[in-house]
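Lab notebook, page 48
Experiment: co-folding of the full assembly
Goal: obtain a model of how the components sit together before planning crosslinking
Operator: M.T.
Materials (sequences as entered):
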Amino acid sequence: MINIENQSERLETMSPQAILRWAVDCYGEQLAVVTSFQPTGVATLHMLYELGVRPQVFTLDTGLLFPETYRLMDELEALLDLRLERVKPELTVEAQAERYGAALWESAPDTCCMLRKVVPLGTALQGYDAWITGLRRDQPGRACIPIMSWDHKYEKTKLSPLANWDESMIWTYIHAHELPYNDLHDRGYPSIGCNTPTCTQPVKTGQNTRAGRWVNHAKNECGLHVLSINLDGGC
Ligand code: SF4
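Observation: model returned without errors.
Model output:
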């Protein structure tokens, strides 16, 4: 039985690659990677590729992603020989509109994320013991995330191997390895989710990197992660 807190402390001093290697060795086929193909996810998938391992990869295909995101997904699936499953919600976008009204992301974004992301991920992760995320401590509201923790929502171990890297380190890695990334990042979108006027907007200079998410709503996370939110950066 692993003591998660102690192991997380040990992982603090290790490189992301060493953390990934440890996770693969420890959890084997019970380990899954969950990514939305943002820069941290791209770097994570490439590190796993370089380690010569192919864990199951899940991405949440809400049916509302940007064309640029779908293109990147296809490109990386081929480039890195991913074992990728596009996890879809039970309801199509049209069926959701019929049942809950049009633009649920405007009227009730938490419900929309629950239906299109949170519940489908729970179903996908059944049978897995641990999952890898792309959370980083330099992202707004995420300063306190551990490398390894117990995920009470999904009742699995959660790993954030690049928690200690900042955005510039991620981009240095991506450029050094000439990896593809979402074109929208070059057009002012640091964080990319669904392609609706509410859920993903470009940010202005000086705004935080998640300021374009769920604009005009108090919401700032999709609900996959239970975080101790502290926007002033303290823990
Ligand atoms: S990001 Fe927006 S459209 Fe996508 S699932 Fe969440 S609320 Fe719905």
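Interpretation: The first strand starts at residue 31 and ends at 34.
Next step: discuss with group before ordering constructs.
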